[in-house]
């Protein structure tokens, strides 16, 4: 039985891809059989693992031929980690899924086939509230909501929870909030602690204890096509994602 | 005759809203009659000026009733600066414009009415390549492309230029690149200069000389509902946007 996590937040640049790639890599290195699905047409998770985007034959097929995973799952450079690469065709998701009976439940149909092969599935989402993040939410058991320690990111949480509510009510998704995750946390910037305080006052029980610090190596690692645990194993960025991985494994096992 | 700028980049969190709000405010304070259009359903530019989002009667009307601007333009707290606030209805832009003859050219139809009243129009876009940024590109004379000094943001430039090319070829847009704008530039982070060097090697003639430094006041100002020139008038963030404003005025007058 695989546990499926969506990494979602319509606010842009909050650390969704950085969390998806590094969490998936840490889980794989901890011995779990992992699949990373890149549902973002920007294909950042794909290039973050050193692989190239291509026109089709990846995440677009996961949505249009969910019952044939051999056609869209491929190896990644990290042991125990497989990847469904983003493709250009994702850019017109509405057109891609126009003939589907229930366009929001396409990815969920792949669940049975994934349960046999993987322990964990991580889905990276684009910065939107459209059909792609909706497919991820409907397919997932839990959603991790990265919260950059900035004002606009905090304000966006209401909209993110509305999107989640719509997935549950209109599309029968049984996804729950796995947790809010503070990213780019910098205790030297007063706003960081203000945001943390504000979010904790509403969602403390649903917030991960791990806070991802602002660490330049997290920005450098993707330019080398590597997860941070391989690029800078002894960095604060790596320590934080290792700690988050422990927290998540502890929560599901 | 108004000059219309779109602020666009499908990469999330690169400083589109921060640039839209602060450029519009600096132009207004420099005595130009300005209009800021918030085309992002996140409504960050709207709240960055201290105003609240609402269900309808703002940017959604600019798209559906472009010939009746009195219905969607309102005052902002800054002299010389009017605002078209984002509204919830923007979230389903495809549905909103499904009856339009040419959904991509709706906002452009408002141009004539805006030319009489304003010197400059600034349009903030959401992080996508969909119908909303397309309307902004088709309506605009120039596009400002904020480039965060990070690897994923640089990689995304190819896709941004493709979107621009499609607007020009498929929707007869005559928008040109006004310039690439480096944002969150931090000379202490080696990657920053690497990214700058890479972008300049391809687009030097189209890159603004002004670089916006990483400055925490740019993150704090929106939480006070003010542009940075009002929140922290003597800061590096304010100096950079004042310099950018001079560079832009010099380019168009
Ligand atoms: N903790 C961190 N410290 C420093 N830099 C970070 C950190 N987390 C992410 N970054 C960098 O910040 C930028 C934004 O992060 P990322 O691209 O992961 O966000 P995202 O939410 O996936 O963006 P999008 O909305 O475009 O999909 C990237 O350049 C990334 O390398
Ligand atoms: N030069 C800067 N220095 C420090 N912080 C900045 C700077 N520019 C923007 N920020 C902050 O970084 C975050 C991202 O910026 P902003 O929201 O303007 O980007 P965006 O491209 O509009 O994002 P989205 O893709 O979600 O629309 C915001 O919290 C903003 O306050
Ligand atoms: Mg991303
Ligand atoms: Mg924005």
Ligands bound to this protein structure = adenosine-5'-triphosphate, magnesium ion
Number of strands of chain A: 7
Stretches of chain A where pLDDT is under 50 for at least 5 consecutive residues are none
Quaternary form: homodimer
The neighbouring-strand order within the major sheet of chain A is: 3-4-2-5-1-6-7
Rounded average pLDDT of chain A: 96
User: What Rg of chain A is obtained from the alpha carbons, in whole angstroms?
Assistant: 17 Å
Largest sheet of chain A: 7 strands, mixed
Q: Secondary-structure element order of chain A, as H and E?
A: EHEHHEEHHEHEHHEHHHH
User: How much helicity do the residues of chain A have?
Assistant: 40-55%
Q: Which chains share the greatest interface?
A: A-B, 34 and 34 residues
Spatial shape of chain A: globular
Q: Strand pairing plus helix content of chain A: what structural class?
A: alpha/beta
Cα(first) to Cα(last) distance of chain A is: 12 Å
Taken as a percent bin, the fraction of beta residues of chain A is: 5-15%
Number of helices of chain A: 12
List its traits.
homodimer; 253 residues; alpha/beta; 12 helices; globular; binds adenosine-5'-triphosphate; binds magnesium ion
């Amino acid at each position: 039985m695989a546990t499926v996590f969506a990494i979602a937040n319509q606010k842009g640049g909050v650390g969704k891809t950085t969390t998806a790639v590094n969490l998936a890599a840490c889980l794989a290195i901890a011995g779990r059989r992992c699949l990373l699905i890149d549902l973002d047409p920007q294909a950042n998770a794909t290039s973050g693992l050193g692989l190239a985007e291509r026109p089709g034959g990846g995440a677009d097929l996961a949505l249009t031929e969910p019952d044939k995973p051999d056609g869209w799952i491929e190896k990644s450079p990290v042991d125990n980690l497989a990847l469904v690469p983003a493709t250009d065709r994702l850019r017109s998701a509405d057109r891609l899924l126009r003939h589907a009976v229930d366009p929001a439940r396409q990815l969920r149909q792949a669940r049975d086939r994934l349960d046999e092969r993987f322990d964990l599935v991580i889905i990276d989402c684009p910065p939107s509230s459209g059909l792609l993040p909706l497919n991820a939410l409907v397919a997932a058991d839990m959603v991790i909501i990265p919260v950059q320690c900035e004002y606009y990111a905090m304000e966006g949480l209401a909209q993110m929870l509305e999107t989640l509510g719509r997935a549950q009510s209109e599309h029968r998704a049984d996804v729950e909030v796995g947790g809010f995750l503070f990213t780019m946390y910098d205790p030297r910037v007063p706003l960081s602690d203000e945001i943390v305080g504000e979010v904790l006052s509403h969602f403390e029980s649903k917030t991960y204890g791990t806070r991802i610090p602002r660490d330049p190596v997290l920005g450098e690692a993707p330019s080398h096509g590597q997860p941070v645990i391989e690029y800078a194993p002894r960095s604060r960025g790596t320590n934080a994602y290792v700690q988050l991985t422990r927290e998540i494994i502890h929560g599901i096992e």
